[in-house]
Design a protein that fits this description.
Layout: E1 2-5, H1 10-21, E2 26-30, H2 33-42, E3 45-48, E4 67-70, H3 89-109, E5 115-120, H4 149-169, E6 174-178, E7 181-182, E8 189-192, E9 195-198, H5 200-209, E10 214-217, E11 223-225, E12 227-228, H6 229-241, E13 247-250, E14 256-258, H7 259-270, E15 278-281, H8 296-302, H9 311-324, H10 328-331
Parallel strand pairs: 1-2, 1-4, 2-3, 4-5, 5-6, 6-13, 7-12, 10-15
Antiparallel strand pairs: 8-9, 11-14
Helix pairs in contact: 1-6, 3-4, 5-7, 7-9
Length: 336
């Protein structure tokens, strides 16, 4: 049996599906009852749970558990706080650190050794754009300003506590560092410093569907590493089954994808009879960072190799999933 905590999130829904396909019994937790019903339809057991409430963990099974996937957390894209007027640092620590400790304590008390979570890929943002693949040994380096700062600090603290449980209590905790994760989900809009914006890929797709021009600001050949959600979900399955799984893992596509390539692919796959044109705006500022992460450790320790390394394959499956309508309840989750 596998417990997926935070299963009603974007990555959580796909991760539950991947474990079910692998033949596992899955106990899924979350706070969205509508998505909980969807998880039950998929074949999982669902338990409403808030990780900040220690008493909620009494609802969970305590025996025959192979491990826990910890996906619950507060992210900047979901945080409504406007940092110009409000400070939400306590929220990040209450959920991402104290909530994680509640998970770890549940596992320690019940003899569950494996907990696999995640961290922020921005913890090494100081090394972005330096022209080499970033490994797990790269020293932390990040900005202490902006809406991602306290999130990164809280995730670093969470991961350090997980390592404490590894060494102090002989557990086998691990965490994934993944960059932007593409796939059908509720992220057509995101929060940036408390304000709602349409995400870049959602804008590309929407414009392509309606035959509108797609503008590329700044350098159209900025390259960055991304990953498809089904690869992330499969990686959690492999990592939980792997005997060597331990500590930090980069979890990305392992290849850089060009911004212009993204626009052309989206136009080809999502465009109708009247295709969009690409408008180049080099005079406009584009803060998209360039980065590449090494995938060797995950390959060596539990045999993970991403299936969707090509952006075309990624977006082709994205379109199939979108057209199928099976994730409509997940897509609509952000709008409610």
């Amino acid at each position: 049996m596998v417990i997926v905590i935070g299963a009603t999130g974007f990555i959580g829904m796909y991760t539950v599906e991947a474990f079910l396909k692998a033949g596992k019994r899955v106990v899924a937790t979350g706070r969205n009852m509508e998505l909980g019903r969807k998880l039950i339809e998929m074949g999982a057991d669902f338990i409403e749970l808030d990780i900040t409430r220690p008493t909620d963990f009494e609802k969970l099974p305590k025996t025959n558990i192979e491990g826990v996937i910890l996906l619950a957390g507060l992210l900047p894209a979901n945080a409504k706080a406007d940092l110009e007027n409000t400070e939400n640092a306590a929220d990040y620590f209450n959920i991402n650190v104290l909530g994680a400790i509640n998970v770890l304590e549940f596992c320690r008390k019940n003899g569950i050794k494996k907990v696999i979570g995640n961290c922020s890929y921005s913890d090494v943002s100081g090394s972005w754009g330096k022209g080499y693949p970033i490994t797990e040994e790269e020293p932390r380096s990040f900005k202490f300003t902006g809406d991602h700062a306290v999130y990164v600090i809280s995730k670093n603290a969470c991961n350090d506590v997980m390592e404490y449980y590894n060494q102090q209590h002989e557990m086998q905790c691990a965490w994934f560092r993944f960059p932007p994760v593409y796939g059908v989900g509720p992220h057509g809009t995101i929060y940036v410093n408390g304000k709602v914006y349409k995400s870049g890929i959602a804008t590309f797709i929407d414009n392509a569907i309606h035959g509108k021009n797609i503008e590329l600001w700044g350098d159209p050949h900025i390259k960055r590493d991304i990953i498809y959600v089904k690869d992330v979900a499969d990686a959690y399955v492999l990592a939980l089954e792997g005997s060597k799984t331990y500590g930090l893992y980069n979890m990305t596509g392992g290849t850089q994808i060009d911004l212009e390539e993204q626009a052309k692919t989206v136009i080809e796959l999502f465009g109708d009879i009247e295709k969009s044109s690409i408008i180049y705006r080099p005079e406009m500022s584009n803060n998209t960072p360039s980065f590449l992460y090494s995938m060797e450790k995950a390959k060596l320790d539990f045999g993970f190799v991403p299936k969707y390394k090509k952006f075309y394959d990624m977006m082709l499956d994205y379109k199939k999933e979108l057209d199928s309508g099976r994730w409509n309840v997940l897509v609509e989750a952000r709008r409610k």
